[in-house]
Amino acid sequence: MTSQNTSAFADRPDYRVDIYPRRNVVTASVDGRLLAQTSRSLLVDEQDHGLVFYFPRTDIRVELTADPDTQSRCPFKGEATHWRFDGDGDSAICWSYETPFDEVARLRGYVAFYQDSVDVRLGQAHPAVSWRPPTESVK
Protein backbone atom coordinates (compact mmCIF):
# COMPACT_ATOMS: atom_id res chain seq x y z
CA MET A 1 0.00 0.00 0.00
CA THR A 2 1.41 3.40 -0.99
CA SER A 3 1.40 6.52 1.16
CA GLN A 4 0.04 9.91 0.11
CA ASN A 5 3.59 11.01 -0.76
CA THR A 6 4.55 8.12 -3.04
CA SER A 7 3.14 6.95 -6.33
CA ALA A 8 1.37 3.65 -6.86
CA PHE A 9 3.97 2.61 -9.44
CA ALA A 10 5.79 0.63 -6.73
CA ASP A 11 2.69 -1.56 -6.33
CA ARG A 12 1.80 -1.54 -10.05
CA PRO A 13 5.04 -1.25 -12.07
CA ASP A 14 3.18 -2.39 -15.20
CA TYR A 15 0.70 0.52 -15.05
CA ARG A 16 1.09 2.88 -18.04
CA VAL A 17 1.01 6.66 -18.06
CA ASP A 18 2.55 7.57 -21.41
CA ILE A 19 3.31 11.24 -22.09
CA TYR A 20 3.87 12.39 -25.66
CA PRO A 21 4.87 15.91 -26.72
CA ARG A 22 2.74 17.11 -29.65
CA ARG A 23 3.31 19.92 -32.13
CA ASN A 24 -0.27 20.13 -33.36
CA VAL A 25 -2.17 23.29 -32.51
CA VAL A 26 -4.54 22.37 -29.68
CA THR A 27 -7.19 24.79 -28.45
CA ALA A 28 -9.56 24.90 -25.49
CA SER A 29 -12.67 27.09 -25.49
CA VAL A 30 -15.96 27.61 -23.68
CA ASP A 31 -18.96 29.15 -25.48
CA GLY A 32 -16.65 30.48 -28.20
CA ARG A 33 -14.19 32.07 -25.74
CA LEU A 34 -10.63 30.89 -26.35
CA LEU A 35 -9.10 29.75 -23.04
CA ALA A 36 -5.87 28.26 -24.34
CA GLN A 37 -3.97 27.63 -27.55
CA THR A 38 -0.68 25.81 -27.91
CA SER A 39 1.57 23.91 -30.26
CA ARG A 40 3.50 22.56 -27.25
CA SER A 41 0.95 20.27 -25.60
CA LEU A 42 1.53 16.96 -23.91
CA LEU A 43 -0.79 14.10 -24.82
CA VAL A 44 -1.31 11.81 -21.84
CA ASP A 45 -2.39 8.26 -22.59
CA GLU A 46 -3.09 6.71 -19.20
CA GLN A 47 -4.13 3.09 -18.84
CA ASP A 48 -7.88 2.80 -18.12
CA HIS A 49 -8.47 6.50 -19.01
CA GLY A 50 -9.21 8.51 -22.12
CA LEU A 51 -6.60 10.61 -23.90
CA VAL A 52 -5.99 14.03 -22.30
CA PHE A 53 -4.15 17.05 -23.69
CA TYR A 54 -2.17 19.11 -21.19
CA PHE A 55 -1.43 22.76 -22.06
CA PRO A 56 1.65 24.66 -20.90
CA ARG A 57 0.49 27.15 -18.26
CA THR A 58 2.14 29.93 -20.30
CA ASP A 59 -0.32 29.22 -23.14
CA ILE A 60 -3.44 29.67 -20.97
CA ARG A 61 -5.21 32.89 -21.97
CA VAL A 62 -7.36 33.40 -18.89
CA GLU A 63 -6.40 34.11 -15.29
CA LEU A 64 -6.78 30.90 -13.29
CA THR A 65 -7.71 30.82 -9.61
CA ALA A 66 -7.34 27.71 -7.46
CA ASP A 67 -10.70 26.18 -6.45
CA PRO A 68 -10.43 25.38 -2.73
CA ASP A 69 -13.68 23.35 -2.82
CA THR A 70 -12.40 20.72 -5.28
CA GLN A 71 -9.73 18.23 -4.32
CA SER A 72 -8.55 14.98 -5.86
CA ARG A 73 -5.57 12.67 -5.90
CA CYS A 74 -4.36 10.31 -8.58
CA PRO A 75 -2.31 7.43 -7.19
CA PHE A 76 -0.04 7.63 -10.26
CA LYS A 77 0.26 11.40 -10.74
CA GLY A 78 -0.23 13.00 -7.31
CA GLU A 79 -2.42 15.68 -5.72
CA ALA A 80 -4.39 17.69 -8.27
CA THR A 81 -5.04 21.40 -8.02
CA HIS A 82 -8.34 22.36 -9.64
CA TRP A 83 -8.72 25.74 -11.32
CA ARG A 84 -11.46 28.24 -12.15
CA PHE A 85 -11.51 31.45 -14.13
CA ASP A 86 -13.78 34.47 -14.07
CA GLY A 87 -16.79 33.50 -16.16
CA ASP A 88 -16.56 29.71 -15.89
CA GLY A 89 -19.75 29.22 -13.88
CA ASP A 90 -19.87 27.46 -10.57
CA SER A 91 -17.21 24.81 -10.91
CA ALA A 92 -13.58 24.26 -11.83
CA ILE A 93 -12.79 23.78 -15.52
CA CYS A 94 -9.26 22.39 -15.38
CA TRP A 95 -6.65 20.77 -13.18
CA SER A 96 -2.91 20.48 -12.81
CA TYR A 97 -0.33 18.57 -10.82
CA GLU A 98 1.82 21.23 -9.19
CA THR A 99 4.14 18.64 -7.64
CA PRO A 100 3.62 15.48 -9.71
CA PHE A 101 5.30 12.22 -8.79
CA ASP A 102 8.75 11.70 -10.33
CA GLU A 103 7.43 9.18 -12.88
CA VAL A 104 5.25 11.89 -14.47
CA ALA A 105 7.36 14.97 -13.63
CA ARG A 106 6.90 16.28 -17.19
CA LEU A 107 3.35 17.32 -16.20
CA ARG A 108 4.68 20.07 -13.89
CA GLY A 109 3.70 23.44 -15.35
CA TYR A 110 0.87 22.00 -17.50
CA VAL A 111 -2.92 22.27 -17.19
CA ALA A 112 -5.63 19.92 -18.50
CA PHE A 113 -9.26 20.90 -19.17
CA TYR A 114 -12.38 18.91 -18.32
CA GLN A 115 -13.54 17.64 -21.70
CA ASP A 116 -17.20 17.50 -20.64
CA SER A 117 -17.33 21.27 -20.10
CA VAL A 118 -14.53 22.64 -22.33
CA ASP A 119 -14.23 22.18 -26.08
CA VAL A 120 -10.71 20.82 -26.69
CA ARG A 121 -9.77 20.62 -30.36
CA LEU A 122 -6.82 19.19 -32.21
CA GLY A 123 -5.60 21.17 -35.21
CA GLN A 124 -2.82 21.07 -37.75
CA ALA A 125 0.79 20.35 -36.84
CA HIS A 126 3.42 23.03 -37.44
CA PRO A 127 5.11 22.64 -39.74
CA ALA A 128 2.27 20.83 -41.40
CA VAL A 129 2.68 17.21 -42.33
CA SER A 130 2.17 16.88 -46.06
CA TRP A 131 2.49 14.20 -48.67
CA ARG A 132 2.11 14.08 -52.40
CA PRO A 133 2.00 10.87 -54.44
CA PRO A 134 5.05 10.33 -56.59
CA THR A 135 4.61 11.29 -60.19
CA GLU A 136 4.75 8.43 -62.64
CA SER A 137 7.39 8.60 -65.29
CA VAL A 138 6.19 8.49 -68.86
CA LYS A 139 7.88 5.91 -71.08
Query: How many angstroms separate the termini?
Result: 72 Å
Order of helices and strands: EEEEEEEEEE
- CATH topology-level name: Metal Binding Protein, Guanine Nucleotide Exchange Factor, Chain A
- Mean of the pLDDT scores? 90
State the fourth-level CATH superfamily.
Answer: Domain of unknown function (DUF427)
Uncertain parts: none
Shape: flat
Word description of this protein:
- This protein has 139 residues and is an all-beta fold.
- The protein has a single domain (15-125), classed as Beta Complex (Metal Binding Protein, Guanine Nucleotide Exchange Factor, Chain A), CATH 2.170.150.40.
- 0% of the residues lie in helices and 44% in strands.
- It has strands at 17-21, 24-30, 33-38, 42-46, 52-56, 64-74, 78-85, 94-96, 110-113, 119-125.
- A seven-stranded antiparallel beta sheet has the order 1-4-5-9-8-7-6, with no helix packed on it.
- Strand 6 and strand 7 form a beta hairpin.
- The termini are far apart.
- 26% of the residues are buried.
- The mean pLDDT is 90.
